Amino acid sequence: MIAHYGWLAAVPHTGREKCTINIGDGTYIGRFCHIYATSKIDIGTKVIMADKVYISDNLHGYEDISMPVIDQPVFQSNEVSIGEGSWIGENVCIIGAEIGKHCIIGANAVVTKNIPDYSIAVGIPAKISKRYNFETKQWQKTNAEGEFI
Length: 149
Ligand SMILES: CC(C)(COP(=O)(O)OP(=O)(O)OC[C@H]1O[C@@H](n2cnc3c(N)ncnc32)[C@H](O)[C@@H]1OP(=O)(O)O)[C@@H](O)C(=O)NCCC(=O)NCCS
Known about the structure:
By secondary structure, this protein is mainly β. Helix content is 0%, strand content 39%. The chain contains no helices and 18 strands. The protein has strands spanning 7-10, 20-23, 28-29, 34-37, 40-43, 48-49, 54-56, 58-60, 74-76, 80-82, 87-88, 93-95, 98-99, 104-105, 110-111, 119-122, 127-133, 138-141. The strands form four sheets. A seven-stranded mixed beta sheet has the order 3-6-11-14-16-17-18, with no helix packed on it. The chain is globular. The termini are far apart. Bound molecules: coenzyme A.
């Protein structure tokens, strides 16, 4: 399900031969999503995504100060993936990063680094705040490196 006013594009601006957005079965994408792949964005099965989520595997180049950013080549960042069963909060941006399965990304987070399976991450830049502890069978607070505290 992709709700109203979404913008999904897979355009090989950076010269990749193959350029794809894959969306797994049972995934819900909220309103006003902006998902733009120049290489690969994989969204797993049964992901829930709130409104106004931005996902991309690329950035505008900005190195040349004699040229407006709009005229500079698009720069390829890392491929993006979101694991099955994850929950992406309102206004989240995911830029060139992988999110594991059954993760929770808090509202307004900006994810630029990979987040491992069964983690909660919040903030700008997004840092791990909790992980599921399979010994205690509970979500437990962690430091930003994901170590239980
Ligand atoms: C992240 C979220 C799921 C709560 O996670 P949680 O770990 O169960 O929440 P807690 O209340 O235990 O908070 C843990 C810490 O994270 C902080 N935190 C929670 N959500 C946060 C957010 N979105 N951004 C920044 N910090 C956040 C809390 O303030 C708390 O900080 P502290 O340890 O310094 O006190 C929730 O706050 C959230 O953002 N949900 C998304 C809501 C949404 O977008 N819904 C749209 C409908 S699908």
